[in-house]
Fold this sequence. Notes:
The protein is mainly alpha-helical.
Amino acid sequence: NGEKGKEVNADDDEEEEEEQHAKERRRETELWESIKVKSLSRLLVTTYCHSLLLLVLTVQVHLLGGRLFREEEAEAEEVSEAPADGAAEVNIAANGEAMSTTSSLGLQSRTKSKSSRSSSLPSYQATHRAVLTQTYGQFFSSGLVDLLAAVEEGVREVFANYDVTDLDSMNITADQFWAATTLVRAAVEGGRSEMLRSALAQYIVPSEDNFTDNVTDPIAAHILEETWDVLESPTFAAAEREVFDVTFAMLIEGGWGGIFSPKRTDIVPVGVPQAGSTRPLAQVVTQLRRTTNTFYSSAVGDGGTGAYEEGRPPNVYLPAVDRLSTLLELGDVGFN
């Protein structure tokens, strides 16, 4: 009986040890799964955020610039057509200065062009601040959270079979990584067959109904309404798609921040798989944070001062997208 008792105790100890090892493996797998999803999602969300902010800022700056340009044109025409004796209809402000009543968009401006420009610029600066506050306040408070959730869901589904603790899936090639990332993009951005509306503008401007809530500046409200109209247009959708494609192509050409061997891409988006290097998935996942942090960093060293030479772009990303025809067209739509 004593021997049998020892055998039973040994069996119990062995089962307990195996159960403990199983728990540790599950914890390790869950930890790596969390790191994998968060690292990949952080890279993709950062890429989407930079692109979306660039696109929407392009629209709004050109909308505001177009209004300012037409305002000054109207004022210049008013001055040129004014009677020589200065008998144009004016209102006398409280401070005794002459103010024009014919300014567009409800702006008041001085009848002399030089003083008019100096007085209207502060007003437009306040309008610009109101537009930015309303747009990006919504994005960073709720839109970004929703975008992150959508990306994490896509990453979790597409990369489900890649397990850093499994010998059969612990390595990944550059082309496998790109193919999987493309599937995540498809899950987040939707299909490409008839993409006439923006895929991700909903995260910047969730609803037209409340986009102008609490906006007291009439010009800011007007700019926000026009922003919504442009974001729903095929022009914005085309620019968004090309900016995304060029951004991801740059990541591929750079080997995803040096994780894989760099390679050239002659077409955008990349559609033909090429032979690539193989890396441990754990290494790829852990290095993605560095890729995210460095992709939008300075293209040249600044000595740690944060200062850049005049006329030199802050990174290699901006010059690549600034010259895209679709982005230039988007700016024209906003300005005109």
